[in-house]
Structure formats: structure tokens, C-alpha cells
Amino acid sequence: MEIFFGLVATIFIVLSIPLYAIFEAPRLQEAQAAQLGADLNEAMSLYAENCSVCHGLAGEGIGAAPALDNPALREADPAVLTKTIARGVYGTSMPAWNLEDGGSLSDYQVNQMVTLVLHGDWLETRDRVVNLGLAPKVPFTSQPDPAILAQVQAPPDGEVLQRGKPVCRAVWPATARMNPAALAPA
Ligand code: HEC
Q: Distance, CA 145 to ligand 1 centroid (Å)?
């Protein structure tokens, strides 16, 4: 009788090992996918708050701040990305982000930013920036506001003002041109 129970127990154990392996693998994958989703979710908010001002709403890059939606970065060495984000790039405007280096992000949050660069969805990130109200109200542009230009052009000779460097002209108050007294020292 005891032998019989021993045999049943042994068969049970022997069978349960492959069964465990079969059921455990997808469970592990699911857990990893859930963790990735949670990390990306937090990373998008951190991006909106800390990075979008330089790297753009959707990681498209602005001026000297390079694009982060760059497919090449998805193949980048995570260790290099971690170092860049944690310590910044000396001699550029890329700040150090890790708390240890004077920044505001924990090690875990720096890793979340690396995850965003490697696996993030940049259109979803753009939506996050906009939804958090962190998108610039007026998109960055080197062109002057047409309404201001029209105002500058309105006075006689105004068209002269508008020529040349329109940005400076548009910023310079039109009233000064219309009323020279406004330029006189008080
Ligand atoms: C004040 C502007 C500014 C902010 C804010 C900023 N960056 Fe940068 N970042 C830069 C600049 C400029 C560079 C390019 C440095 C260089 O010339 O190598 C850069 C480079 C990088 C690079 C390397 C890209 C590459 O192609 O090698 C990564 C990754 C990066 N930034 C991530 C981030 C993350 C993540 C944040 C937010 C936590 C952030 N940056 C915030 C300006 C900024």
C-alpha cells in the first residue's frame, strides 16, 4: 500500500514539473509585459515634466537637443543610455538627472526613462504631454505672429518697419514708431 502511494506521489511530482514549466512561462511573460506597461506609463509623465521642453512633445528633438524618437536609439546600449541620462552630457545643455548627480530622478526613474527611449510609443507620449498641459501654448517658431505683423504694418510707413528682420520689428512696439515721443527719455 505504502509503495503504491509512494509511486503515485512520484508520478505526480514527475508530471508536475513539465506542467509547471508550461504554465509558468506565459505567466512570467504576462507579468513582464504588465511591468513594462507600468514603467512606460510613468516614464511618459516624467518625460512630459522633465524632457519634452528640450526634446520635443513627441521626442522629435528641438535645436541642439537631438530626437529621441530616433530608431537607432532603440538599438542603443542600455548602459550607455543610462549613463547619458543619469549623468548628463558635459559641456551641453543635457543635464544630469540622477539624484546622485544632482538631478531629480531616482535610479529606478532613470531606468524608466531608458525604457521609454528603447521601447516607448512617441505618439502616445505626445498625447501625455498635451494632456498634462505641458505642451507650449504657441508652438516654437522663428516666424512672427501674423497678427502682430499686421499691426506693425498698419501705420503710414509701417511696411518699412515690417521689412528687414521681421522678428525684431514685430517685437519692437509699433507705438514707438507711431508716436516718437514714446521714444524720448522721461
Ligand atoms: C535643457 C535641455 C534638455 C533637457 C531638459 C533634457 N535634455 Fe536630453 N539632451 C539635451 C541635449 C542638448 C543633448 C545632446 C547632447 C550632446 O550634444 O551630446 C541631449 C541628449 C540626450 C540623449 C542622448 C541622445 C543621443 O542621440 O545620443 C538622451 C538619451 C537624452 N538626452 C535623454 C533625455 C531625457 C530622458 C531627459 C529628461 C529626463 C532629457 N534628455 C532632458 C538637452 C536636454
A: 29
